[in-house]
Design brief:
Pfam families: PALP (PF00291). The protein has helices at about 45-55, 75-85, 100-105, 120-135, 145-165, 180-190, 235-250, 255-270; strands at about 15, 30-35, 65-70, 90-95, 110-115, 140, 170-175, 195-200, 230-235, 275-280. By secondary structure, the chain is of the alpha/beta class.
């Protein structure tokens, strides 16, 4: 009997129907539970893809040091993948990342380097580029690496098509590096061009982990705007309230970007009929507990 390795358990995550949060208008809303991946997020898929494809090309070899800028989930996933495949991982992130995220990365053996909250992800990306230029490690660069969306073209898209028996009409996803929405859109549109791809970005003043509105100079190279049919702005309070709704009404403990994705899916449901709307629950909520977002109401 052959048993799978940990890496072979990435993907094939459940797609579940919301039982209590009403979609209205005869719509079906489905949540793709990416927190069920072994390192706890949708980023397990591109992390393994980027390492495997780079290794296959001969760009990296086990024992090499890899450098990546991250706000959290990609870093955890890369730290896990590096541990599985035998690489040293250096992760650069803003200091305001939750303590659970930092501890998870360290637990997998990654070395962490912080930049200020003010410098943010742009500062983390700049520092990663500087370290790579000095020869301190090799890049993966999730923001420009085609092996990031390739993971979703090969896995997430086909899974959604099969799990919905081709009935999916709308796909709703946060946009951070944009790998998830780019790869999934490419696959789904090849199967049915009428499927609507809805991206989410933060409203002015919102700071939602996993959802970004990039300055033009930092816009991910992998982003192809023509693959997104519409973009919704998600507010801070809106995302947090829907995150709590997922937990309290559906038993799905997830992060703030997943709350934003639910909010986006419900907005779509308000204007369509007889639709099958899928949104990504990109991670688990236990890595946000120290932020107080789930604290009991006084």
């Amino acid at each position: 009997m052959a048993f799978p390795t940990l890496a072979q358990t990435v993907g094939n995550t459940p797609l579940v129907r919301l039982a209590r949060i009403s979609a209205g208008r005869d719509n079906t809303i489905l949540a793709k539970l990416e927190g069920n991946n072994p390192a706890g997020s949708v980023k397990d898929r591109p992390a393994l893809s980027m390492l495997r494809e780079a290794e296959a090309r001969g760009d990296i070899s086990p024992g090499d040091t890899l450098i990546e800028a991250t706000s959290g989930n990609t870093g955890i996933a890369l730290a896990m993948a590096a541990a599985v495949m035998g690489y040293q991982m250096v992760l650069i992130m803003p200091d305001n990342a939750s303590s659970e995220r930092k501890q998870a990365m360290a637990a997998y053996g990654a070395r962490l380097i912080g930049v200020s909250k003010e410098a943010g992800m742009e500062g983390a990306r700049d520092l990663a580029d500087e370290m790579i230029a000095r020869g301190e490690g090799k890049p993966l660069n999730q923001f420009a690496n085609p092996d990031n969306p390739l993971a979703h073209y090969r896995t997430t898209g086909p899974e959604l098509w099969e799990q919905t028996a081709g009935r999916i009409t709308h796909f709703v996803s946060a946009m951070g590096t944009t790998g998830t929405i780019m790869g999934t859109s490419r696959y789904l549109k090849e199967r049915n061009p009428s499927i609507q791809i809805v991206g989410l970005q933060p409203a002015d003043g919102a700071s939602i982990a996993g959802i970004r509105r990039w300055p033009e100079a930092y816009l991910p190279d992998i982003f192809e705007p023509q693959r997104v049919d519409s973009v919704l702005d998600i507010g801070q309070r809106e995302a947090e309230e829907h995150m709590r709704r997922l937990a309290r009404e559906e038993g799905i403990l997830a992060g703030v970007s997943s709350g934003g994705a639910l909010a986006g899916a419900l907005r779509v449901a308000e204007r369509v009929d007889n639709a099958v709307i899928v949104f990504i629950v990109c991670d688990r909520g236990d890595r946000y507990l120290s932020t107080g977002l789930y604290a009991p109401e006084s």
